[in-house]
Design brief:
This protein has about 70 residues and is mostly helical. It has a domain of about 45 residues. Helix content is about 90%, strand content about 0%. It contains three helices and no strands. The longest helix has 25 residues. Keywords: Membrane, Transmembrane, Transmembrane helix. This is Pilus assembly protein Flp/PilA. It comes from Bradyrhizobium huanghuaihaiense.
C-alpha cells in the first residue's frame, strides 16, 4: 500500500512540475470557449441551425440508402 502511495505522490509532483501540462490545459480552456460560442450561435440563429439540420438529414438519408 505504501508503494502505491509513494508512486502517486511522485506522479503528482511530476505533474505539478511539468510545464507542458499548463499549455495543454490552456488549449482545453480555449477549445471550451470556442465550443460555447458555436453553441450560442447555433441556438440563436435559426437559419444556420435549420441549414445544418437539413444538411445532416440529407447526408444521413443518403448514407442509409447505401
Amino acid at each position: 500500500m505504501l508503494k502505491y502511495y509513494i508512486k502517486t505522490t511522485e506522479a503528482l509532483k511530476n505533474l505539478a512540475a511539468d510545464k507542458k501540462g499548463v499549455v495543454s490545459f490552456e488549449y482545453i480552456i480555449v477549445a471550451a470557449c470556442i465550443v460555447a460560442v458555436v453553441i450560442a450561435v447555433f441556438k440563436t440563429d435559426t437559419s444556420v441551425s435549420t441549414a445544418l439540420h437539413s444538411g445532416i438529414t440529407k447526408i444521413s438519408t443518403a448514407m442509409n440508402g447505401l
